[in-house]
Structures are given as structure tokens and as C-alpha cells.
Amino acid sequence: MPSADRLDATFAALADPTRRAILARLALGEASVMELAEPFAMSQPAISKHLKVLEGAGLISRGREAQRRPCRLEGKPLAEATGWLEQYRQFWEGSFERLDALLDELKASEKNPGT
Fold it and tell me: What SMART domains does UniProt report for this protein, alphabetically (predicted)?
């Protein structure tokens, strides 16, 4: 079970569309800050701020290859957030199944009153 602070950091980082786009790009493979900044109409320092948020949430890490510091996607926080959401998906699925069963029971009693 992930800590509440870690989930908060993950969801806060995912709340921004630029950060989600950066994660989508990194899902294709490592990239430098310059490569990540290319598709956005914002300054490199602005992209760096987004990367710091993602790095702080543990969603990315930065390596070092000579002059280059490639960013890479880290899956564990996303897996933890998915697991947390999955619990609620299962809860709602169970609730809908019980509601379906109740509706079927009501329909059956309307067709056959007194049974």
C-alpha cells in the first residue's frame, strides 16, 4: 500500500497536462530535457520545473551519460496509483452487480406477483 504522501505527489504531478504529455513521451524511451521541451511552447526552465515535480513524485529519474542527462520513466508510482484506483473500481463493480441483481429480482416479482 503506497503512502498517502506518495499518492498525493503522484496525483498532483499527473494533474497537469504538460506533465502527462512528458510522461507519455518518456513511455517511448529516454529523452533529454531539450528533447522533452521541443513540442511545447514554453521555455526550457519551465520544462525543468515540470521535470522537478515529476522527479519529486518519483515518476521519472535522471541519469548521466557524458554531457547528457537523460530522463526516464519510473513505473512504480504509477503502478501504486493504479492499484489504489483499482480498489475503488472493484467496489463500484460490486455495487453495480448487487444493483443489477436487485433489479432482476424486482422485474421477476412484477412478472409473477405473489411468488
Answer: HTH_ARSR
